[in-house]
Amino acid sequence: MSIKLIDVKKSFGNPPTEVLKGISLEINDGDFVSIVGRSGSGKSTLLYIMSSLDNASSGKIFYNQIDLVQMNQKEIHELRNTKIGFVFQFHYLLPELTVLENVLMPARKHNLQLTLKLRAMELIKEVDLEGKEHRMPSQLSGGEQQRVAIARALLMTPQYLFADEPTGNLDSHNGDRIMTLFQKINKEKKTTVIYVTHDKEFANRALKKIELADGALKNA
Ligand SMILES: Nc1ncnc2c1ncn2[C@@H]1O[C@H](COP(=O)(O)OP(=O)(O)O)[C@@H](O)[C@H]1O
Ligand SMILES: [Mg+2]
Fold first, then answer.
1. Mind listing the domains of the chain with CATH numbers?
2. What is the pTM of this model?
3. Atom of ligand 1 nearest to the CA of 46
4. Which residue among 12, 51, 89, 165 is best mutated to probe the pocket of ligand 1, counting the most ligand atoms within 8 A of its Cβ?
5. Nearest atom of ligand 1 to the alpha carbon of 47
């Protein structure tokens, strides 16, 4: 089982500028993968396209040999809502909801808030926020907010976790904690983890490293 990209291209604007210039790669289930490259090299764009949050301009993306464009609405919703967790560079917590309510957000769509409440509490503990369930995001540090966003991304026990510079705004101690949590999930739940980072040490923890330069794979 894998995620496979074949000659994926992405252009923005009119006249179009090509931001991804034909990316082909395969990520096997259970892989632990870092994406590195200079600012503007296309890392976020690749992550959004790989995770089905954005469409490619051309090329193909397969999840377990099924072409994303062949999936019907129901299948694509199921993929996005239950199989994929995404941690954005800026966490996007809802400011009017508590920590616990933010973590439970993905359960709302499925009416599973009650069922998953224990799981949410467990995750909050796992990201070291026990006792802060009822705080508002504004009462947390940046590192704590990012950890809430990570707990939220993990609520549905996704098969795939995508993270766009999850440690970018954190000090090295908090960054290290998040990387360690990712490694734990990868090991214990066999979750495929794909993360963008600028940190050399964090990038090197990956078993597989994807390096982008100007919209293309380096050394490809
Ligand atoms: N929605 C968009 N519209 C126009 N240009 C975009 C858009 N998203 C990204 N770009 C451009 O694509 C290039 C790659 O962006 P991005 O994937 O965000 O790079 P990275 O994450 O590596 O910094 C940049 O030049 C950026 O300006
Ligand atoms: Mg980016």
1. 2-217 (3.40.50.300)
2. 0.94
3. 17
4. 12
5. 17
pLDDT by 10s per residue, the chain, length 220? 899 999 999 999 999 999 999 999 999 999 999 999 999 999 999 999 999 999 999 999 999 999 998 999 999 988 998 899 999 988 789 999 999 999 999 998 888 999 999 999 999 998 889 999 999 999 999 889 999 999 999 999 999 999 999 988 888 888 898 899 999 999 999 999 999 999 999 999 999 999 999 999 997 5
Q: How far is the CA of 115 from the centre of ligand 2 (A)?
A: 35
Residues with CB under 6 A from ligand 1: 12-13, 19, 37, 39-45
Which residue has the CA at smallest separation from atom 12 of ligand 1?
A: 19
Measured in Å, residue 2 CA sits from the centre of ligand 2 at 24
DSSP state letters, the chain: -EEEEEEEEEEETTTTEEEEEEEEEEEETT-EEEEE--TTSSHHHHHHHHTTSS--SEEEEEETTEEGGGS-HHHHHHIIIIIEEEE-SS----TTS-HHHHHTHHHHTTT-TTTTHHHHHHHHHHTT-TT-TT--GGGS-HHHHHHHHHHHHHTT--SEEEEESTTTTS-HHHHHHHHHHHHHHHHHH--EEEEE-S-HHHHHTSSEEEEEETTEETT-
